[in-house]
Amino acid sequence: MPMKTSNQIPELSFKDIENGDPKATSLLAEALNSHGFFSITDHGLSEKVLDSCYKSSKDFFNLSDEVKNLYHDPAIGGARGYTPFGIETAVGESIADLKEFWHHGPITDTSYSSKIPKNIIIQELEDFNRNFDLLFEDLHGIGTRVLRVIAESIGIEKNFFDSWTEKGNSLLRPIHYPPVKNTTNIHRARAHEDINLITLLVGAEEGGLEVLNKNDEWIRVQPSSNSIVCNIGDMMQLVTNKKLKSTTHRVVQYVENEPTSRYSIPFFMHPSPETDLRDIFKQGSKGVSAHDFLNERLKAIKLY
Length: 304
Description:
The protein has one domain (11-300): Sandwich (Jelly Rolls). It is built from 8 helices and 15 strands. Strands 1, 2, 3, 4, 5, 6, 8, 11 and 13 form a 9-stranded mixed β-sheet that branches. It has a 4-stranded antiparallel β-sheet with strand order 7-12-9-10, with no helix packed on it. The protein is of the alpha+beta class.
């Protein structure tokens, strides 16, 4: 029976999607049309690399606030390094999200835009940066392949987005959501949309992620272990003239559960800063640079 994607987030074999399996590609198209979220298995991500990054992430967040704050630089709007608990605030909200996080980007050289900041090295944890360099490389490769199947699903050339993201401003965000003991505010990350082209989320099986469907109902995302949850961001919505929609989602702590820390590692896939974000279906349309679009959104969520 066909899956009702308005009320479920489909979990699909990425091998089947790439091989053009009719059922898998149909379910992917339905999910993109319905709410812009789907999860994939058979993606090839190294479990060893992922496990090492989760260990490194927990080790960092277990450091003292005094040490962690050494890696916080408000002048760069959280583009790299540490952002403390209670700073990022969803657009239109006055209460900050209940999370702390780290930003890690590509290993850059002179072939990258000078607008892309360099990574910050954590002195206290020997393997932290090496582990996240490996995860970045793995998820960038998977994200490139996901963009290709998305391109085919909307009828454009398969490799259309490759040149946008090859030297892109993508980033990994290991996040720590501390236990929420005051159940009057269960919103660890309030309702928001992502800024980028697509997001790949590893670690969503811990629970708490919810997606808003077309009927304004919140759907719990409950992927199996080792799957990757994928979703459309605002930049993709813009360049496809809303053919693909950036879906509202949030992270909550369910009151029936014992308060515990939640960890996740989303990978936000961005184009290079100079990429012209314009309607790709309309010849001669005017756009905005990815750099300017990102900066405006960072100000809106109070990272600047």
